[in-house]
Amino acid sequence: MDAMPKWADVILIPVISILLAAILSALVILAIGENPWAALKLMVDGALGSTYGWGYTIYYATNFIFTGLAVAIASQAKLFNIGGEGQALLGGLGVALICLYIPWPHWTIALLGAAAAAALFGAAWAAIPAFLQAKRGSHIVITTIMFNFIAAALLNYFLIGALKAPGMEPATAKFPEPTHLPSFQDMFNFGETTFFRGAPANVTFFVAIAACVFVWALVWRTRLGYEIRSFGESESAAKYAGINPTKIIMVTMLISGALAGMMAINNVQGEAERLVLNAAEGAGFIGIAVALMGRNHPFGVMLAALLFGFLYQGGAELALWTSIPRELIIVIQALVILFTGALDNMVRMPLERLFLSLRRA
Amino acid sequence: MTLTQKLFGAAATVALTAGAAAADPAILFDLGGKFDKSFNESAYNGAERWAAETGGTYAEVEIQSDAQREQAIRRFAESGANPIVMAGFSWATPLAEVAADYPDTAFTIIDMVVDAPNVRSVVFNEHEGSYLVGMMAALSSETDTVSFVGGMDIPLIRKFACGYAQGALAANPDVTVISNMTGTTPAAWNDPVKGSELTLAQISQGADVVFAAAGGTGVGVLQTAADEGILSIGVDANQNHLHPGMVLTSMMKRVDLAVYDAMSDGPDMETGFNVMSVANHGVGFAMDANNENIVGYDVLAAAYAAAAAIESGELAVHDYSTDETCPALDF
To answer: Chain A contacts of B76, Cβ < 8 Å?
Structure first.
């Protein structure tokens, strides 16, 4: 029997962790002579106080949903996919090729094509580490992280070579007009007031939500999902039950890579509308924290992604309007990751003891 | 400082969050961050010099991601900041989209050209300055081998390398030029350990003068060169003082001057296309007390003669960025 009721596990622990991170962040801000309350207010206002702020928060969250889901589904099979960054970069390459070289008539079809290409490229990038793990036992943590560097080098090769637009900047040309995805500003424009003005959130957010539903259904409502979870719980038991470990490792990692790759339709096709160097910007790594915090459940991943979206956009506002240095904003973001991910047991164990003593009483 | 003092100090700075006052200039740094000991820091120094001389204040931001570029320009323009200066070629695409929305705001972009009536584009002839230090390197080399350590392999850095190789070969047709790039991710701008390893590798191939155009990575290059007893050449700012007597010279790229000029000219600045070249001292090589004893008279004379020839138009250094080929070096 579990030591704690389920609600305490999924709600109480994250909330306490975030509060602890917030208190520590406040002390850090105080120590450099800024006002933590004003900083918090600025972050909340900037990220959630207007449709413009929401537009950015949702844009970042969309990235993190994809990479978070990628890590989450791999974790169901106890595979630790740290290669989300590289898979997302390769997804970007797929999107760029599809958008630049195929004359799409309308964005809806372009979105389908780009999503397929992004998923394919991301999956292909995850396939090699997956194969090495399944057939050779090379640890997936090591190979996926090495593939991040190879992906960056490959992208660099294309962006200063074959795909570079004229000029000094290592980036592709702008994608043609029909591939541009409608932003929230285009979609929610009723009458006089403009909502989401200039914000990069776009239709991809709904794709991300659909991906959450897809992952939930796959993991908990299909035979494959059952096999993935069984394999994750115990490889030897799964084998005994007739589950093919090679197949599970390959399939899980392909899905994981495809999800990470699909992030590119948000940042490459939706926002930048061209491929630039380092397009993933660390979202692949944030995905690990998002999955940890979301307890590897799609709904949790979505909430955690929104939190990190808030931290990113709020952090940008802090950088714009205060003299809090950029490094300290990263410290604040890191504290949240530390408390919600790495220091999980620090909150969990006393809570478990508390609940146990309550039960005994 | 006691905690109480800190608390009061914090309360006093709340006003700061209201943002910069109208018509203050603003500066936007690139992803490297303002203390990169190189490009961004040079821009920062220009802004600080303006603030110190005029007593003015300016708004600034170090962005964390590419998605923040357009956001930062818009937010500053809407807050009334004017002029808005941005350092780095990656600002060009967002600025080209945004500039027309704020016709009354003057923008300055460094390292790239944006064609809009309210934008001043400042570009540097890095190939000319690199040519000059390439000559000095070849003339100072005893092994007839000089080397180059670049940061990330992007066209801009190839422009440095190409100018350097041309200068070295012009001074001594028998010279061997070794060229290495630190990496393919932005981490290459701040990897002194890798810079040090590359320098050691180049020394083992016979190099005895090394030019680092690699941001923070260059610190490791210069350090290793000094430790191993060979000469090095700094970049962007005057880095001669880092290892007095061991840094042959520095290829100066006066980003600080471009920022200072833009802020001094204010909202009514003359917009258009500005080239910082050897002719107007926007690029060049640094001479000071730290290196006057190691630069030979003949070396200096040759460099000044070449600078004069470039200035008069007599000598044209090939610019890698015009056709993406280099007559002196293969990439």
So the answer is: 320
Cα–Cα distance, B331 to B328 (Å, whole number): 10
Mutate which: B8, B24, B64, vs A, most A CBs within 10 A: B64
Q: Where are the beta strands (DSSP E) in B26-175?
A: 26-29, 59-62, 84-87, 107-110, 119-124, 145-152
Residue B69, domain CATH? 3.40.50.2300
How many other C-beta atoms lie within 10 A of the C-beta of residue A237?
11
Structurally, chain B folds into a number of domains equal to: 2
The answer to whether residue A273 is domain-embedded is yes
CATH number of domain containing A226 = 1.10.3470
pTM score of the predicted model:
0.84
Tell me the per-residue pLDDT of B254-274, one tens digit each, with 9 for 90 and over: 999 999 999 999 999 999 999
Chain B residues with CB under 8 Å of a chain A CB are 6-7, 9-11, 13-14, 16-19, 33, 59, 61-68, 70-72, 74-76, 89-90, 92-93, 111-112, 152-156, 159, 184-186, 321
Contact by Cβ (8 Å): B215, B265: no
Are B185 and A60 a contacting pair at CB < 8 A? no
Look up the domain containing B67 and give its range: 18-125+257-276
C-alpha distance from A325 to closest chain B C-alpha (Å): 8
- Domain identity same for B187 and B227: yes
> What order of strands is seen across the sheet that includes strand B247-253?
B176-183, B145-152, B209-213, B231-236, B247-253, B283-285
The answer to whether position A19 is within a domain reads no
Task: Give the distance, in angstroms, between the CA of residue B254 and the centroid of all CA atoms in the same chain.
Answer: 7
ipTM of this predicted structure: 0.77
Q: Quote the tokens at residue A153.
A: 């080098």
Domain count, chain A: 1
- Mean pLDDT per 10-residue section of chain A, whose length is 361 residues: 76 87 90 90 92 93 97 96 96 96 94 97 97 94 95 91 84 93 87 80 96 97 96 94 95 97 96 90 91 91 94 89 82 84 81 87 69
Q: Which of chain B's residues have a Cβ under 8 Å away from the Cβ of A200? A: 67
